């Protein structure tokens, strides 16, 4: 014999929200897109080495001609990696005669480091 049970009433505890918002605003989609592009740019081992070479060079800048030998890569490959870093806002490019000189954009690396060390 089957019995029909009464409909359950909600327990008071069920009415409480399951999660409490942290109160901190979430990162905007635009900021996430920008940061993603920058992190992708430096995630490549050769590009990470380029950033290191440039930031540790005299005057914190380097000519493209000085960056091919340490990486053991051809000039077109090094130029491609440098373009990716410039497009991501990590490096600044300055043309001097026939050569291009690259430097770290002020605050670019600090900004990325800050994202990684933010307390949540």
Protein described:
There is one protein chain. The chain has helices at residues 29-43, 45-55, 68-71, 75-87, 108-117, and strands at 61-63, 91-96, 99-104. It has 120 residues and is of the alpha+beta class. It has a 3-stranded antiparallel beta sheet, covered by helices on one side. A hairpin with a 2-residue loop joins strand 2 (91-96) and strand 3 (99-104). The mean pLDDT is 83.
Describe the structure concisely for a colleague.
By secondary structure, the protein is of the alpha+beta class. The protein is 44% helix and 12% strand.
Structural class assignment: alpha+beta
Alpha carbon gap, first and last residue: 56 Å
How many helix segments?
Answer: 5
Report on the biggest sheet: 3 strands, antiparallel
Helix content: 40-55%
Poorly predicted spans? none
Kindly report the spatial arrangement of strands forming the biggest sheet.
Answer: 1-3-2
Number of strands: 3
User: What proportion strand?
Assistant: 5-15%
Which sequence of SSEs, written as H and E, runs from N to C?
HHEHHEEH
Annotate the secondary structure layout.
Blueprint: H1 29-43, H2 45-55, E1 61-63, H3 68-71, H4 75-87, E2 91-96, E3 99-104, H5 108-117
Antiparallel strand pairs: 1-3, 2-3
Features:
three-stranded antiparallel sheet; 5 helices; elongated; 120 residues; alpha+beta
């Amino acid at each position: 014999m089957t019995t029909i049970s009464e409909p359950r009433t909600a327990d008071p505890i069920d009415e409480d929200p399951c999660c409490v918002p942290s109160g901190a605003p979430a990162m905007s989609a635009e900021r996430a897109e920008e940061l993603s592009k920058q992190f992708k740019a430096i995630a490549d081992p050769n590009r990470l080495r380029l950033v290191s070479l440039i930031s540790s060079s005299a005057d914190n800048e380097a000519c493209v001609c000085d960056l091919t030998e340490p990486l053991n890569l051809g000039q077109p490959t090094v130029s491609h990696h440098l373009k990716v870093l410039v497009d991501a806002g990590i490096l600044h490019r300055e043309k001097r005669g026939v050569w291009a000189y690259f430097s770290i954009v002020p605050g670019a690396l600090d900004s990325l480091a800050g994202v990684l060390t933010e307390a949540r």
